[in-house]
Specification:
The chain is mainly α. The protein has two domains: about 1-110, Rna Polymerase Sigma Factor, Chain: A (Orthogonal Bundle), CATH 1.10.1740.10; about 115-195, Arc Repressor Mutant, subunit A. The chain is built from eight helices and two strands, in the order H-H-H-H-E-E-H-H-H-H. Strand 1 (about 100-105) and strand 2 form a beta hairpin. Helix 2 crosses helix 4 and helix 7 (about 160-165) crosses helix 8 (about 170-195). The radius of gyration is 18 Å and the shape is elongated.
C-alpha cells in the first residue's frame, strides 16, 4: 500500500484526522529546518521559523488548493516568514557561523557542519571548512532575491516551476535571477578565495 500524498494528508487533516498533520510535519520539518538555517544563517531562528510556518499551515489549511502541490506552498510560507524577519532585523546573523548548534539535546555540531563533506584527510577537512566559511560569507552578502533563488535551486533542488510558485514570480524571472545569482556568487567566491592568505 502506497503512502498518501501530501495533498491527501492535508485534505484528511481538514476532515478531522489530526495524525495527518503530524505526518506532514514529520515529512518536512527537517528539510524545512535546513532550508531556513541556510536562508537565515541561524539554527535558533530556523527552529522558530519552522514552527511558525507549520502553525500557518495549520491555521490556513482550509485555504490550500488541493489541485496544487503542498511542498511549494509550505516553502512559500517559510520563505515569506524568513523574508519578513530579514526586513525587521539587521543583516547580521544572530549567531556566529561556527557557533555550536544544539538540536535535540546534542552538542558539538556547528552550523557549518550542515554543509560539510566528510573527508578522510585532516587537511581536506580544513580546506573544506574554509571553503564553506567563504560560501556562507558570500551567500550572506548576496542580495536577498538572488540568495533565495540560489538556495532553493542548488541546495534544495526545486525545479524552476516550483521555485516560481514559492517566490510568486514568473518562470522567466526565476531563470534570469538564477543566472544572475550564479554569476554573482562565482565572481564573489573567486574574489574571496584570491584574497585569502
Amino acid at each position: 500500500m502506497s503512502e498518501p500524498t501530501d495533498e491527501k494528508l492535508l485534505v484528511d487533516f481538514l476532515a478531522g484526522r489530526s495524525e495527518c498533520f503530524t505526518e506532514l510535519v514529520r515529512r518536512y520539518a527537517e528539510e524545512l529546518f535546513r532550508f531556513l538555517s541556510r536562508f537565515t544563517g541561524s539554527a535558533t531562528t530556523a527552529e522558530d521559523l519552522v514552527q511558525e510556518a507549520f502553525l500557518q499551515v495549520y491555521q490556513s489549511a482550509d485555504k490550500f488548493d488541493p489541485s496544487r502541490r503542498f511542498k511549494p506552498w509550505l516553502f512559500t510560507i517559510a520563505a515569506n516568514k524568513a523574508r519578513d524577519l530579514h526586513r525587521s532585523r539587521s543583516r547580521r546573523p544572530e549567531v556566529e557561523l561556527d557557533a555550536e548548534v544544539a538540536a535535540g539535546g546534542e552538542s558539538g555540531q556547528r552550523f557549518l557542519d550542515f554543509l560539510a563533506d566528510t573527508q578522510d584527510s585532516p587537511l581536506a577537512v580544513l580546506t573544506a571548512t574554509e571553503q564553506q566559511q567563504v560560501v556562507r560569507r558570500v551567500l550572506d552578502e548576496m542580495p536577498e532575491h538572488l540568495r533565495e533563488v540560489l538556495i532553493l535551486s542548488y541546495f534544495h533542488r526545486f525545479p524552476y516551476k516550483q521555485i516560481a510558485e514559492i517566490l510568486d514570480v514568473p518562470l522567466g524571472t526565476v531563470k534570469s535571477r538564477l543566472h544572475a545569482a550564479v554569476g554573482y556568487f562565482g565572481r564573489r567566491f573567486l574574489e574571496a578565495t584570491k584574497s585569502e592568505p
